[in-house]
Structure prediction request, 146 residues.
Amino acid sequence: MSFYVYLSGEIHTDWRDEIQRGADAAGLDIVFTAPVTDHDASDAAGDHLGKPENSFWRDHQSSKVNAIRTRTMIEQADLVVVRFGDKYKQWNAAFDAGYCAALAKPYITLHSEDIVHPLKEVDAGANAWCTTTDQVVETLRYVLKA
Prediction:
């Protein structure tokens, strides 16, 4: 069985690469997609549409352009992995998880134990909660090879 997996969330570590390497090593037939992970490029996604009067409108413009990619890839995915890192608050990742829940799209959360409480609603809607990328790969292996 082939799967499309969207890797949402935190962009400051190599967790996406770890999952992709693990899936490759396990021989899993998975196509991975992701948001734009270049922070500056993402912030500037709407700049070509004109110079807004303030930063709120710049962010608004860019978030709408980024949403074209994000929504399309989430809708096309068979499964979404949503990563919450320890360093920054990833409100966009929480939004992606909520979007998955609204679409009845299966998703896995990936985060440490110390942020279980603030993510309790997000985790409650998830099909699995993982603390390591190895657990994500093992979950994918089970889903595809069991």
User: Anything to note?
Assistant: Residues 62 and 137 are 32 Å apart (CA to CA).
